[in-house]
Specification:
This protein is mainly beta. It has one helix spanning about 50-55, and strands spanning about 10-15, 25-30, 30-35, 45, 55-60. It has a 5-stranded antiparallel sheet with strand order 4-3-2-1-5, covered by helices on one side. The mean pLDDT is about 90.
């Protein structure tokens, strides 16, 4: 069953990024998933299947108050 992914979700990946961060923010959803490293800002596109295998946990950040 596919993961329910939403724009803005924070994904903790199984392997860390070379900058040291393991957390990425989802910025694009489709056949490919666009994610941005929360440590250095690097953007990466992963096929949905590869993203779902690499993600350890997925959480929705709390809504920002204006």
């Amino acid at each position: 069953m596919p993961l329910e992914i939403h724009k803005g979700d924070i994904a903790t990946m199984r392997k860390g990024h070379p900058c040291g961060s393991r957390e990425w923010q989802v910025y694009r959803i489709g056949a490919d998933i666009g994610i941005r490293c929360l440590g250095c800002g690097r953007r990466v596109m992963l096929p949905r299947r590869e993203f779902e295998r690499a993600v350890k946990s997925l959480r929705t950040p709390p809504p920002e108050e204006s």
